[in-house]
Amino acid sequence: MSAVNAVGWRPEMGPAQHPEHESSPHLTASGDKGLMLEEPLIFELGRPGSTGVDIDAVDRAVSPALARFRRKAQAALPGLTEPEAVRHYTRLSRQNYAIDLGPFPLGSCTMKHNPRLNEKVARIAGFADLHPLAPQQTARGAYEVINQLAEWLITLTGMHGVAMSPKAGAHGELCGVLCIKAALEARGEDRKVMLVPESAHGTNPATAAFAGFSIENIPATAEGRVDLAALKARLGPDVAGVMITNPNTCGLFEREMKAICDAVHDAGGYVYCDGANFNAIVGKVRPGDLGVDAMHINLHKTFSTPHGGGGPGSGPVVLSEALSPFGPLPYTARMADGVVHLVEEEDAATMGHSQSFGRMAAFNGQMGMFTRALAYILSHGADGLRQVAEDAVLNANYVLRSLEGVLEAPFGKTGPCMHEALFSDENFPEGFSTLDVAKGLIDEGFHPMTVYFPLVVHGAMLIEPTETESKAGLDRFIASMRSLAARAKNADPSLKTAPHFAPRHRLDETQAARKPVLSWQGG
Ligand SMILES: *Cc1c(COP(=O)(O)O)cnc(C)c1O
Predict the structure, then answer these.
(1) CB-side exposure of 431: number of CA atoms within 13 Å?
(2) CB of 305 closer than 6 A to ligand 1?
(3) pTM
C-alpha cells in the first residue's frame, strides 16, 4: 500500500511534486520530518479485512425473520491491526498543543495549569466509579463534595444559592436567563428585551436569543467600560435585564457595577453577570455585594479543572435571593438553619423549592469536575484563592507593561488591567495584521493568543497569562512577542507566510467552512 500523506503527496510522486518543495528541499520518502510525523485519515490507512482481533467466522444462515436486517453492503469501516490503530491515535495526539506542553495565552479562556493533586482526588475509586443511579444513601461522600463545593461558591460570590448542574459557561448562562424568565413570569410581566454591552462575549447575546429575548446593544465608553448613561437611558418596562461580563472582555473591571445593578433593579429588571473571568477577582470581590442576580462560574477556568480537549466544562450558576426560588433542580442553597443543603426533585415541595423552572441536565452535573474543583479550593484555602487573583492580575500587568512599547495597548494609559492584557494592530504597516503575529507565535512554539476579540478593538490581541506561568516563562513569551511585533512593524515578508516550522503552513482561514469535505470519497 502506498501511504498518502496529509498534503495529498505520495512518495512515488517524487520531491518535485511535493507541495512543500519550494520551502523545504530536504524531503523524506515517508513524508515525516524527523519526529514531526504525518498522519493520513484512518480511512486512508485502513484495508478491508485487516483487523486487530480474531473472530470466528459467522454462521451466515439466519432465520428469514432476521434476514431483512442483514447488511446489504460491507460496512465502510477502516481495517487496521492493533499497532496501526494505536499508532494512528498516538501520532494524532502528538500534533496537539496542550497546557502540559507550553503556555496557552488565550484571553478570556483562563487556560491554567491543572494541578495533579486534583487528578489524584478525582480518581479515588469511591468518586470515580460511582454510578449516577446509585441510591443517595450509598453516595453520601459525593453529596458531601457537592454541598461543600456549593458552600464555597456561595461564600466566595456572596450569593444565596447555586445550581450545580449546568455543564459549561454557556449552559450556565442559559440557566440564569431561564431563572430571570421564570421570575418575570411569576410577576406576570412579559419583558422581551435583554441588554448586552458591545464588548460582551458572543455567548451572552446567543443565550438571550435562545431563551426568546430580543437583544439590544449598549455601547462602550472610550475607556472600554459599559456606558452607564446609555444603559440608564434604555431601561424601561420592556427590559428584562442586562448581561454584563465583569471583569469585562477588555480585561477591565466594571467600576460602575453597583450603580448598574441599582439602576436595572429600580427599572424592574435583573442583572446577569458573566462570571467566566472570576479568576481575576476571586477572594477579592463578592458579586452578590454588587447586586448581581445570577452568575455562572466556569470551574474549568477559575478553579483549574481541565478544559478544551482535556475534559468537560462545568458551569455552576449562583443566584441572588430574588432568583433563588426559580433555580433548577437539583438546587443547592443556604436554608433557614444556616446550612447549605441540596434539594432534589422528590424533596422540592417539602424543602420549599416548588417554583423551580425545571432541570438543566440529568443527574447532578459534572461530578469529576466537582471533585477536582473542591480539591483545588481546599488546597489553596481562602488566602490562597485571593493570591490566585492577585498573581493572575500581576502577571497580566507584567505582560501589558512589557509589550506596550512595541504594541498599541488601547486601554493601557487609563490604568492597570485585570487578568488579561489587550493590544491592537492599529500601528502596523499596510498589509500586516494581528493574524500574522498569531501565526508567528506558532513558529515560536506558543499557542496563539485570542485574536479579533473583543470586537470593540481593531485587530484585538487578548493575552491572559494566568497565575500559573512563572516569570521566566512570561519573559520567554514576551521576548517572542517583542520579536514578532518588530517583524510586523518592519514589514518582514516572511511573517506573512508564517508558520514555517509547523506541520502545515499558512492555511486558508475560511475554506474548511466554505467548502467542507464531510465524507471521505476513497481513492
Ligand atoms: C469561556 C467564556 C464563556 C463560555 O463558557 P463555556 O464554558 O466555554 O461555555 C462565556 N463568557 C466568557 C467571558 C468566557 O470567557
Answers:
(1) 9
(2) no
(3) 0.89
